[in-house]
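Write out the bound-state structure for uracil.
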Amino acid sequence: YLAEMGQGTRSEIKKLIRSGRVMVDGETVKKPELKIDETTQKVSLDGKQIGYAKKEYYMLHKPAGVISATKDDRDKTVLDLITDKKRNDLFPVGRLDKDTEGLLILTNDGAMAHRLLSPKFHVEKTYLVQLNIPVSEEDVIRMKEGVDIGEKRLTKPAEMKILAEKECLLTITEGKFHQVKRMFHQLGKEVVYLKRVEMAGIRLGDSLEKGQWRQLTEKEIEKLKEQADGKKEILCSEERKNTGNLSDMG
Ligand code: URA
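---
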């Protein structure tokens, strides 16, 4: 319940519970595995009640021509496409360019969205890319080595798989503005078509037509949570090794 309400990762919350900072219906609880009924029970952390708001997760097959925003005066937004949504607090997890198609995750879970987008978590995003001229094995190597797109550092290693003469899959773990287009531009090629096919282990697949959406399944939501929590654990131990402290962890 506390993790879902954005009070920290599952492992952080287990520690909070064991240290006696959590109460259920006015009684201190010390067992993280305790199940609660969110419709009737009152949960508090450090004396502050943590109210319940159901978290929801959707995937949208974004068509070209709509923008990844919640509201816009001129253009149609991705939120305009989710017509019969029950709530109005959804937002897209990251952005796709107006002309980019494919997988967009939408949620009202701010903590989860933050983790999926944080550069610290290296969440993988895979794009189907079509180029104006043929791609080569040299491009595959350049993408792996990192490309200078005018940022402070080279891009992180990206995995490129050639599918056809002018078509490939590219998996990146960052989300810089126009990143895929800028990476190929740097290799002397222009992106003529871009579609995100996978993010954080969630595949778009081919069951949704452009403009269609569905709720994520329980299994997919679990996958997102494991990604965000699990990667943080790995990162914490790596940072501990490197820096000896965790004070800058988000
Ligand atoms: N990279 C881009 O250049 N555009 C997108 O929409 C996503 C990744």
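---
Residues 232-250 have pLDDT under 50 and may be disordered.
The pocket of uracil is lined by residues 96-97, 100, 178-181, 194 (CB under 6 Å).
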